[in-house]
Task: inverse folding
């Protein structure tokens, strides 16, 4: 009896071994957390074809939006940990716990590759009566609750940047929520909102064409894509302690995915980030390449979570204290 | 000018590109005809597939799929009462009754020709007035989207059949179904009862497949012994007289289509429903009443949804703002191919604009050709005996519901709404208003809240803002006018006016 069981186990193992070696043996599903045409979408759709070639299989990408990306995270979390469902996400899940959007974050996932980081900036409609952050603060102080800031919901990039800004200066503004940064920038061009904290990569074409006005770069150093735009830390050194900060894009699989599969995915996506075409796209759009995996990626994620969770909590924008989830103050 | 023409002709002079457009259009018609398989899905798969290609061949294929797919939805809507795509919902309302009378061939022929006209109008506006239209579309504020959605919800009056009360009930139910899921603005749970599968809301394609396809199959069980309707296939290409008769209407509804298509956030589905309503309003004496196979009710939405294709390209190509999901994917494709879609694209790479216009024109012509051939074969589907046809409808519905996002959950929704839709129909409720409610629910919800938040949650401020903006004021006036025209007040006002004059 015992030998029979052992035999069966051995047979199963033998059957399983080539299955892992041959990964991927069917199409891989890539779940993109944000809508078509947004920053996350563009980065994922540009890198995946390179990774597909290296993997020798196809990745079918699908946008699953809603709940600040929580729906996509839940969905991937509910699938089997076999490497056939990839989560193609942005930074948002690291704030779900403090924002009351569920009890899951990237600690439940294995980072395959943290691809790139976006540089945040403040953009305004071109005819707005302010040209720099100092002028914006003066204007908002003189006209409280009149300036409309675009937002993408709790935990989205605009909410974090707004929390960061209000940690040092009082900014009584109205936050108008949109479905994503794409629709919000459209609304900005149409004058429905006045200012929008956005990623440089998505706003840059509008800025170049003069349809959007860059007010401040939320970074410590100037950016090659927008020379002449002063980083906010120059005039307001108090912000330097949070910076450089930025949204990031990464590919993840569920915890428990076989090591061999993880290694193969990490190798493929790691090499894909080095593709010259992809690198040119990343640079041209004003993103900074990260290409982190393994322990480096884990450390980056933990650090990012500490800084940001406490930032939004101190600004009064969080529902729960990061301490409740064992997130230490940086 | 010569240069523009040269760019325009790129796709026409290269046999490979022309072949790809033809292939895309052909595939699009069939992808569009199957409910659940959407053009959006096909386009996003093609992006990865055509990654190593040059930009021209990749765009040729996608443009073809887009044009063909929007048209293809009408096929199953007319033949089986299952709209192949949301933009064909309005087509089913009068198209299917025509097929039930044995005039499916003529209905498909007419819808093909009118789709071609609509497509042509959309492309013409794109080519001539793209910058103007996109500037205008950008001016739409949240309150304007809200008013537009309210205008849409008033279509319940046109869709509710014999009883307005039942229509209002069905529309309200649709709004409620659309509200299920995480709140799009604050991510609070609404009507989810802690079930994670409900977070993403109820897939509206699944609702559509259930209410139209499955409930239709169940209804047909009542007549299982009746012989199938013999289809007249003598007349497929509509007569010149018929085309001339419907041309003014199709031009009007094409204009609606282009404009609704150009607005970021609204697309062919809303355009087609609004066009249907417009047709009902302007047609004084239809030969056949609406809902029983009026040709006007077929012409209007078909012209509008294909016009919306050209419309959706307008903000995309002039500003890099997607007009709908498919153009959003095309923007992604352009990024991947090293272009920077945005306001500078027309200046930096004018050839892209004219290339797309040229490819759209080619796709529109192919759509006409492929649309008019093979009708005889398709029409045979309706002549199938019911014991074969009913399982076929069910199969198509279930496969379609699963294909929406490869989730079994959507199949359950489709089946559940199928049974529900059967009882609705049995008790004289129309399913059209339910779908209308689901489509418009989120548009109303989000934009009402954005509008009121923008005005510091002050209703007076919102009202003042609406009245002081010409655009909002016109929309508000249309809402009031259409609302009043559906109440007895309108008739009283009309009589009063005549008395005053006479």
Result:
């Amino acid at each position: 009896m015992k030998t029979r069981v052992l035999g069966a186990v051995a047979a199963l193992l033998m059957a399983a071994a080539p299955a892992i070696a041959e990964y991927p043996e069917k199409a891989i599903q890539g779940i993109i957390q944000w809508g078509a045409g947004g920053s996350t979408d563009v980065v994922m759709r540009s890198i995946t074809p390179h990774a597909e070639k290296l993997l020798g299989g196809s990745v079918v990408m699908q946008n699953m939006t809603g709940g600040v990306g929580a729906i996509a995270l839940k969905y991937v979390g509910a699938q089997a940990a076999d490497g056939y469902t990839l989560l193609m996400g942005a930074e948002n899940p690291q704030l779900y716990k403090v924002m009351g959007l569920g009890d899951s974050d990237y600690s439940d996932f294995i980072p395959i590759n943290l691809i790139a980081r976006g540089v945040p900036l403040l953009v305004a409609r071109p005819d707005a009566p302010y040209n720099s952050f100092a002028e914006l603060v003066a204007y908002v102080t003189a006209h409280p609750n009149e300036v409309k800031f675009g937002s993408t919901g709790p935990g989205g990039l605009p909410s974090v940047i707004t929390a960061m800004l209000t940690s040092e200066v009082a900014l009584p503004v109205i936050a108008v929520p949109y479905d994503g940064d794409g629709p919000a920038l459209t609304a900005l061009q149409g004058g429905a909102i006045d200012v929008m904290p956005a990623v440089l990569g998505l706003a840059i074409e509008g800025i170049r064409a003069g349809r959007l006005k860059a007010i401040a770069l939320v970074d410590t150093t100037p950016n090659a894509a927008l020379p002449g735009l002063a980083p906010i830390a120059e005039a307001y050194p108090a912000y330097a302690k949070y910076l450089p900060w930025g949204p990031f894009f990464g590919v993840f699989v569920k915890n428990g995915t076989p090591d061999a599969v993880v290694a193969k995915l990490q190798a493929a996506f790691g090499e894909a980030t080095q593709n010259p075409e992809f690198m040119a796209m990343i640079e041209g759009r004003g993103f900074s390449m990260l290409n982190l995996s393994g322990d480096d990626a884990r450390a980056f994620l933990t650090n990012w979570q500490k800084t940001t969770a406490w930032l939004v909590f101190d600004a009064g924008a969080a529902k729960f204290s990061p301490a409740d989830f064992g997130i230490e103050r940086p | 000018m010569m240069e523009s023409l040269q760019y325009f002709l790129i796709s026409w002079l290269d046999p490979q590109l022309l072949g790809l457009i033809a292939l895309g259009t052909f595939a699009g018609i069939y992808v569009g005809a199957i409910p659940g398989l959407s053009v959006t899905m096909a386009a996003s798969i093609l992006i990865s597939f055509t990654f190593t290609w040059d930009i021209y061949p990749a765009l040729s294929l996608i443009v073809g799929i887009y044009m063909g797919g929007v048209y293809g939805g009408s096929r199953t809507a007319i033949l089986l009462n299952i709209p192949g795509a949301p933009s064909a919902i309005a087509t089913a309302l009068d198209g299917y009754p025509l097929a039930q009378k044995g005039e499916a061939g003529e209905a498909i022929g007419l819808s093909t020709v009118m789709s071609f006209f609509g497509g042509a109008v959309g492309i013409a506006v794109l080519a001539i007035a793209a910058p103007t239209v996109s500037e205008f579309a950008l001016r739409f504020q949240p309150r304007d989207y809200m008013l537009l959605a309210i205008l849409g919800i008033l279509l319940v009056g046109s869709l509710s059949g014999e009883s307005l009360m039942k229509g209002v009930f069905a529309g309200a139910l649709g709004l409620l179904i659309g509200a299920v899921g995480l709140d799009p603005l604050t991510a609070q749970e609404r009507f989810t009862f802690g079930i994670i599968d409900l977070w993403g809301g109820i897939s509206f394609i699944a609702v559509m497949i259930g209410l139209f396809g499955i409930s239709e199959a169940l209804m047909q069980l009542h007549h299982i012994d009746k012989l199938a309707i013999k289809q007249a296939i003598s007349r497929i290409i509509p007569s010149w007289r018929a085309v001339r008769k419907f041309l003014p209407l199709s031009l009007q509804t094409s204009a609606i289509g282009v404009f609704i298509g150009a607005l970021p956030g609204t697309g062919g589905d809303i355009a087609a429903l609004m066009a249907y309503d417009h047709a009902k309003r302007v047609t004084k004496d239809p030969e056949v009443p609406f809902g029983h196979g009026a040709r006007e009710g077929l012409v209007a939405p078909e012209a509008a949804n294909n016009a919306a294709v050209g419309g959706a390209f307008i903000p995309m190509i002039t500003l890099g703002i997607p007009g709908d999901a498919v153009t959003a994917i095309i923007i992604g494709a352009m990024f991947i191919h090293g272009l920077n879609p945005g306001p500078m694209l027309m200046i930096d790479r004018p050839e892209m604009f004219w290339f797309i216009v040229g490819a759209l024109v080619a796709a529109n012509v192919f759509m006409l050709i492929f649309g008019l051939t093979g009708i005889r074969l398709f029409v045979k589907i309706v002549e199938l005996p019911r014991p074969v046809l009913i399982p076929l409808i069910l199969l198509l519905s279930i496969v379609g519901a699963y294909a929406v996002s490869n989730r079994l959950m959507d199949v359950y929704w489709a089946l559940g709404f199928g049974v529900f839709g059967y009882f609705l129909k049995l008790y004289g409720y129309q399913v059209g208003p339910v779908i209308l409610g689901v489509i418009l629910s989120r548009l109303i919800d989000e934009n009402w809240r954005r509008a009121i938040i923008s005005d510091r949650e002050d209703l007076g401020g919102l009202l003042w803002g609406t009245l002081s903006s010409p655009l909002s004021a016109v929309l508000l006036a249309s809402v009031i006018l259409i609302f009043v025209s559906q109440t007895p007040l309108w008739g009283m006002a009309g009589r009063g006016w005549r008395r005053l004059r006479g």
In short: The longest helix of chain A spans residues 294-314. Chain A is about 40% helix and 20% strand.
